[in-house]
Amino acid sequence: MSQHSDSTTAPYPSGNLQPQTVPGKTLGIVSVILPFVGFGLIGLILGIVAKSQSKKAGAKNTPAVVGIVLGAISVVVGIIVTIAIIVGIGAVAQQCQQLGPGTHQIGASTITCGS
């Protein structure tokens, strides 16, 4: 029986067989989670950092891209909500200035204005 070497079979790699980790992948995963717990800006920044680390290593980092998108959406929504709150407080303050101190019934709403 002769030994036959099949040219289509790749030789077994030698050395350490641990899978290579993608640089920035852990940061990318963290950047996906942070917008859901109220830290959209930090998630956006970490996503950008993770993407940069992966790009330097020539690796693809999908969690970082998702983190960037979710972080950006979270920041935009946060800005819109903040503006809406400021406008609402301004409207109530203006109405209190016109009505004076006390409790006032306007439609279905009750507004309490300070002294």
UniProtKB/TrEMBL annotation:
Keyword annotations for this protein, in alphabetical order, are:
Membrane, Transmembrane, Transmembrane helix
Transmembrane helix keyword on record: yes
Q: Where are the transmembrane segments?
A: 27-50, 62-89
- Official protein name in the record: DUF4190 domain-containing protein
Q: Look up and give the organism this protein is from.
A: Sinomonas terricola
Q: What is the lineage of its organism?
A: Bacteria, Bacillati, Actinomycetota, Actinomycetes, Micrococcales
